Amino acid sequence: MPKTYEVHCKQAVTEDMLKQLTDGVDIGESTKTLPATAELLTEDTLLLTITEGKFHQVKRMLQAVGNEVIYLKRLQMASLRLDERLKPGQARCLKNDEISGLQEY
User: Fold this and answer.
1) Sheet architecture: strand order including 80-81
2) DSSP line for the chain
3) If you average pLDDT over residues 80-87, what whole number do you get?
4) Whether the predicted pLDDT of 75 surpasses 90
């Protein structure tokens, strides 16, 4: 299922880094990561959407292209978007339509 993250990087994200992320990168496993969707928000911040869930995948992907993650926040999983009203550590029950949306995956 697609997962979208806000990623703040230690260095500026170059066009070459974006291309590598969208093509898939070698993070030390038997195969490259699946292609991601990457959108630059500022010179060192991007929205990254991946469809796998490998261990520390986003951090490993950025490391593989020569950068480092300094802040990472998951914003969305499939159709379920993070509720901005929740404080860190808080949770809420999912609505029936949100559950149905997740079950499609």
Assistant:
1) 37-42, 45-50, 3-9, 69-77, 80-81
2) --EEEEEEESSPPPHHHHHHHHH----SSSSPPPP-EEEEEETTEEEEEES---TTHHHHHHHHTT--EEEEEEEEETTEE--TTSPTT---PPPHHHHHHHHT-
3) 92
4) yes
Distance, CA of 105 to CA of 100 (rounded, Å): 9
Give the integer Cα–Cα distance in Å for 6 and 17. 16
With tokens 């880094």, the residue in question is 17
CATH number of 3-103: 3.30.2350.10
Q: Please state, in angstroms and as integers, the Cα–Cα distance from residue 5 to each residue in 44, 64, 71, 94, following that order.
A: 14, 17, 10, 20
pTM (two decimals): 0.91
